[in-house]
Write a structure and sequence with these properties.
By secondary structure, the protein is of the alpha/beta class. The chain has 16 helices and 13 strands. The protein folds into 2 domains: 131 residues, no CATH class; 249 residues, P-loop containing nucleotide triphosphate hydrolases (Rossmann fold, 3-Layer(aba) Sandwich).
Length: 400
C-alpha cells in the first residue's frame, strides 16, 4: 500500500511538504524494505520526534538494513542536522535508482517484456523524493562582510538596453527567471536574440532553446544582431562580415542553439542540452527558452494551467542549479492580442507564469512599427515599474 513520503523520509524536514510523493515498499530491495518500514513505524510511534534515530535503529537490529543506516549516521555524525537530512535524502534516492537498475537487468536476463512506463513512473518518484530536501543556513552564522561578498559574486547578465539595465540594477541575475510577454509576432524572439547577442559580445556562453523558429532562421537573426546589419547587407559583404566576426569571436563567447521546433520537448530535454554543454566544460551564463509555452513538463497534469506553472518552476530550478539567469518568452492571450497595448494580466494560459517569475518584461510594440516600449511589469529588486521607450530595427534585429 502506498505510504506518504513524509513518513518514509521523516528526517528530511517539517511535514508541510510542497509536494506529496507516493512510494511503495515493494519498490525497494529486501534490505531497504526493512528501512522503509522501520522509518514508517518509528514515525507512527513517535510523531513528535523529528529524527527518531534510536527507535529506527532498534527496529532494524538483526536486519541487513541496520548496517546501511548505521553507515549513513556514522559518516554524518559530525555534520549539522541540515546536512544529515540532505545525506539521508540522497541515500534513499540512490537506493531507489540502484533497485530500479537491478529490476531492469533481471527483466532483460529472463527475457520478459519490459514495461518502460512503470520504470519511468518510478524514476519520476525518485526524482521528486530527491528534491524534497532544501538548502538552509543559519542567518547569524555569517558576518555582514560575508553577505556583501556573496551578493557581489552573483553573476549579472547585462541587457542590450541601457535604461532597462538601470531599472534592473545592472541586468538579470543568476538564479532568476525573466519572462518576456508580447503579442504574436510582437518581437519576442528578436528581443531574446538581442539579449543573447549582447551576452556573446561580453564573452559569455549562451544556450538558446528555440521551440518555434528553425535553427537557420534563428542563426540569421543572430548574425544581424551581432553585426548590426541586415541579412541582405551581410550576404553582399562576405569579406567585411568575416573581419567583423573575428573581433566578436576574440571576446570568447559561445552560442549553442538547440532546435526543438520539430518536436514537443519537455524540461528534461532542456536539462539534457545544458548537461551536454557542462560536460564540454562550458559554464552556461544565459539560458534562453523561446517559446516557453511549447515546453511540456515531465509529469502529467489534467489542467494545462498547472502544467505551465510546473514548467516555469522547473526552469527556475535550472537557473539556481546552473547559477545563471533563464530568459523565457511567452505569448499574450486573446484579450491581449485584441487590446491596443499588452499588460501583465494578458499573460496566456496560466497566471502561475507571472507568480513564479522573478521579473516580467512586457514588450509593447505595435505591429509593423519600430517604436514602442518595454514595461517592467514585475521585479523583486525595485518598488517602481518603469516604462522604457525602445526602437526596434526588424531588419537588424536590434533594440535601442
Amino acid at each position: 500500500m502506498p505510504v506518504d513520503i513524509a513518513v518514509v523520509l521523516s528526517a528530511l524536514r517539517d511535514y508541510d511538504l510542497y509536494e506529496r510523493v507516493k512510494l511503495d515498499a515493494g519498490w525497494f530491495s529486501e534490505s531497504h524494505r526493512h528501512i522503509f518500514r522501520a522509518i514508517q513505524k518509528a514515525h507512527e510511534d513517535a510523531p513528535h520526534r523529528i529524527v527518531p534515530w534510536k527507535d529506527i535503529r532498534i527496529l532494524l537490529r538483526g536486519t541487513p538494513g541496520y548496517g546501511a543506516v548505521a553507515e549513513v549516521m556514522r559518516t554524518s555524525k559530525h555534520v549539522s542536522k541540515v546536512m544529515r537530512h540532505k545525506q539521508l535524502s540522497q541515500f534513499v534516492c540512490e537506493q531507489m535508482l540502484r533497485d530500479l537498475v537491478q529490476d531492469l537487468a533481471k527483466d532483460r536476463e529472463t527475457g520478459q517484456k519490459i514495461d518502460y512506463g512503470k520504470y519511468i513512473e518510478k524514476l519520476e518518484e525518485a526524482y521528486k523524493a530527491s528534491r524534497l530536501s532544501v538548502d538552509s543556513s543559519s542567518f547569524f552564522d555569517r558576518d555582514i562582510s560575508d553577505w556583501i561578498e556573496r551578493v557581489q559574486k552573483i553573476p549579472v547578465v547585462e541587457t542590450p538596453i541601457r535604461n532597462l539595465n538601470q531599472a534592473l540594477k545592472g541586468g538579470i541575475l543568476a538564479g532568476h527567471t525573466t519572462t518576456i510577454l508580447a503579442k504574436t509576432d510582437g518581437g519576442k524572439t528578436s528581443l531574446s536574440v538581442a539579449f543573447g547577442a549582447h551576452a556573446l559580445k561580453k564573452g559569455l556562453t549562451v544556450l538558446h532553446c528555440t521551440m518555434e523558429t528553425p535553427e537557420l532562421e534563428l542563426g540569421q537573426r543572430y548574425w544581424c544582431s551581432l553585426l548590426n546589419h541586415s541579412w541582405d547587407w551581410i550576404q553582399s559583404h562576405p569579406k567585411t562580415t568575416r573581419k567583423l566576426m573575428l573581433g566578436i569571436k576574440k571576446a570568447g563567447g559561445h552560442l549553442q542553439i538547440a532546435d526543438f521546433s520539430s518536436q514537443e520537448p519537455t524540461t528534461v530535454d532542456v536539462r539534457m542540452v545544458i548537461e551536454q554543454l557542462v560536460r564540454r566544460r562550458h559554464k552556461v551564463d544565459l539560458i534562453i527558452v523561446d517559446c516557453g509555452d511549447d515546453v511540456r513538463s515531465n509529469r502529467r497534469y489534467e489542467k494545462r494551467t498547472d502544467e505551465c506553472r510546473a514548467v516555469w518552476i522547473e526552469l527556475r530550478r535550472m537557473s539556481k542549479k546552473y547559477d545563471c539567469p533563464v530568459l523565457i518568452t511567452t505569448q499574450a492571450n486573446r484579450a491581449g492580442a485584441a487590446a491596443e497595448s499588452v499588460e501583465l494580466t494578458h499573460i496566456g494560459e496560466s497566471w502561475g507564469k507571472a507568480t513564479t517569475s522573478s521579473e516580467v518584461i512586457v514588450l509593447d510594440i505595435p505591429k509593423d512599427k519600430s517604436h514602442g516600449q518595454l514595461i517592467l511589469a514585475k521585479t523583486k529588486r525595485r518598488g517602481v515599474y518603469p516604462k522604457v521607450p525602445v526602437v526596434f530595427n526588424r531588419n537588424r534585429c536590434t533594440f535601442k
